[in-house]
């Protein structure tokens, strides 16, 4: 019996998705809207009016290097080679979410060693950078502020 073309196509698509997930090193389906809101809150208390300060832009406080590592995501119809494309994307909540997703696809992992890659790990990646996420955040003033804000966000979700 010969398989139908639609069945073969479906199987191929599923295989590609499974291979992509395995090769990317992580599956970020648990990067929910709630997690984005907490990551945003940790960064700037989710101040969507936050412009650029000291080389960090938007409600997620994204740097140009972070944007490059994330794959140079831009607003629709923008050119990643345009001088301020990264700033414009980082200042847009929805575009910035795509930057965060790209960065976490590249660097996201289980930073605290609990066997689960979750929003806390993503917060540690954003706080310590892609290669340093296992460093405890409570070691620095800024890290302690991030932890406090993350805890506040988690409590507000449960309330």
From TrEMBL:
<keyword id="KW-1015">Disulfide bond</keyword>
<feature type="signal peptide">
    <location>
        <begin position="1"/>
        <end position="25"/>
    </location>
</feature>
<protein>
    <recommendedName>
        <fullName>lysozyme</fullName>
        <ecNumber>3.2.1.17</ecNumber>
    </recommendedName>
</protein>
<feature type="disulfide bond">
    <location>
        <begin position="52"/>
        <end position="57"/>
    </location>
</feature>
<keyword id="KW-0081">Bacteriolytic enzyme</keyword>
<keyword id="KW-0732">Signal</keyword>
<dbReference type="Pfam" id="PF05497">
    <property type="entry name" value="Destabilase"/>
</dbReference>
<dbReference type="GO" id="GO:0042742">
    <property type="term" value="P:defense response to bacterium"/>
</dbReference>
<keyword id="KW-0044">Antibiotic</keyword>
<feature type="disulfide bond">
    <location>
        <begin position="35"/>
        <end position="119"/>
    </location>
</feature>
<keyword id="KW-0929">Antimicrobial</keyword>
<feature type="disulfide bond">
    <location>
        <begin position="40"/>
        <end position="46"/>
    </location>
</feature>
<keyword id="KW-0378">Hydrolase</keyword>
<dbReference type="InterPro" id="IPR023346">
    <property type="entry name" value="Lysozyme-like_dom_sf"/>
</dbReference>
<dbReference type="GO" id="GO:0003796">
    <property type="term" value="F:lysozyme activity"/>
</dbReference>
<feature type="disulfide bond">
    <location>
        <begin position="89"/>
        <end position="95"/>
    </location>
</feature>
<dbReference type="InterPro" id="IPR008597">
    <property type="entry name" value="Invert_lysozyme"/>
</dbReference>
<keyword id="KW-0326">Glycosidase</keyword>
<dbReference type="GO" id="GO:0031640">
    <property type="term" value="P:killing of cells of another organism"/>
</dbReference>
């Amino acid at each position: 019996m010969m398989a139908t073309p639609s069945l073969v196509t479906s199987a191929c698509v599923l295989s590609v998705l499974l291979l992509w997930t395995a090769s990317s090193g992580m599956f970020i389906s648990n990067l929910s809207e709630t997690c984005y809101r907490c990551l945003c809150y940790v960064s700037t208390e989710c101040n969507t009016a936050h412009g650029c300060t000291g080389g960090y832009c938007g409600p997620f406080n994204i740097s140009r290097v972070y944007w490059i590592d994330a794959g140079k995501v831009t607003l629709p119809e923008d050119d990643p080679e345009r001088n301020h494309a990264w700033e414009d994307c980082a200042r847009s909540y929805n575009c910035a979410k795509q930057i965060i997703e790209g960065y976490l696809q590249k660097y996201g992992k289980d930073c605290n060693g609990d066997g689960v890659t979750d929003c806390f790990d993503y917060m540690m990646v954003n706080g310590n950078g892609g290669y340093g996420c296992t460093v405890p955040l409570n070691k620095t003033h800024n890290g302690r502020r991030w932890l406090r804000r993350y805890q506040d966000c988690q409590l507000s979700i449960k309330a």
